[in-house]
Specification:
The protein has 104 residues and is an all-alpha fold. It has helices at 2-27, 34-42, 44-53, 57-71, 87-93.
Length: 104
């Protein structure tokens, strides 16, 4: 029975982490929380939540790339000019472990 409780707790944590990520995506379009949301995706908080949610590194990079595309787009009605420092260098070297996305 202890294993069942532990699995239930794990699923609750996973659902919570997924909810935090989804809320942060939604907050990108909220003027009050936009900067805070960008900080979430730039920092360790996103990586921690993504790991708890069971996202692979590839899934994390895909999500950050998609968000970069939306936020960097003038059509989004948000500040344009986001950039991905050293992304090309990391792609060429084959390492994405330390990939960070900057939104400005």
């Amino acid at each position: 029975m202890n294993d069942r409780k532990q699995k239930g707790d794990t699923m609750m944590l996973r659902s919570l982490a997924e909810g935090i990520i989804l809320q942060s995506v939604e907050d990108l379009w909220n003027n009050e929380h936009h900067k805070e949301s960008i900080g979430f995706f730039q920092g360790e908080d996103f990586r921690i939540c993504a790991e708890i949610a069971g996202m692979s590194l590839l899934e994390q990079v895909k999500l950050l790339t998609m968000l970069y595309g939306v936020i960097g787009s003038p059509k989004a009605g948000l500040p344009a000019g986001g950039h991905m420092p050293e992304a090309a260098d990391r792609r060429q070297s084959g390492t994405v472990r330390d990939l960070t996305v900057s939104f400005h």
